[in-house]
Amino acid sequence: MAVDSIVPKYEKKSPWNGQGNAAYASMVDNLDRNIGLLVKKLKERSLFDNTLIVFTSDNGGLYGITKQKPLRAGKGSYYEGGIREPFFFVLNGKIQPNTRSDVPITNLDVFPTVLKYAGIDVARLHLDGHSLAPVLEEEVKIFERPLFWHFPIYLQAYNVNDNENRDPLFRTRPGSVVRKGHWKLHYYFEDDAIELYNLFNDIGERHDLAKTNPKKVKELLNILKKWWKETNAPIPKTKNPEYAHKIL
Questions:
Q1: Is the peptide bond before 70 cis (omega within 30 degrees of 0)?
Q2: What sequence ranges are listed for the domain Sulfatase N-terminal (predicted)?
Q3: Is 24 helix (H, G, I), strand (E, B) or coil?
Q4: Is the CA virtual torsion 125, 131, 133, 135 positive or negative?
């Protein structure tokens, strides 16, 4: 909920780049302050040097309240505005402060990372994620693996007049996404539509390269189909009779 004592601070500010909700800003401000209090208390109790702090979110910002520009769309979408979020780790003596990595990771990596720093051997465990210790300690600069998102159902839009999704009625339609390196492929089950983006050159996913790069489409689609089979992913078998081939 909005923090009444903080809201006026942001009401005085002019909206900028899609950010203009003072109530939302007050909650972010309050969260930041409370993280500071947590760190302060850990230091007071001499626990800071032996505590791994992990901060993240489960999705991108709620598009009707805040924007993630230049990222496209928001929560509930598989464009970067819906799946890219803040993520930081703190472990004094192990993770160098004020360092940054652009290696793509997921929340699935948190569990094996925590186990690693807790001294628990994960070699015999079958985990979906990977320990991020080599990345966090700057032992490696590249973490080469495909990442997958799968959502074979519908998710309605918050506002049909204000969104950046494939069509205005839904944040996402049934589909899957695979990312490998800088390349990202969207696949939609209703009409077998494909979108391809190079995130290095086009982080906002504005320029679909599917038609001009069929070789990359084939490569990523094969990776995606293999993953469906390996994970027994639920795949819609019957076309939706209510689906309109013409996106509204």
A1: yes
A2: 19-120
A3: helix
A4: positive
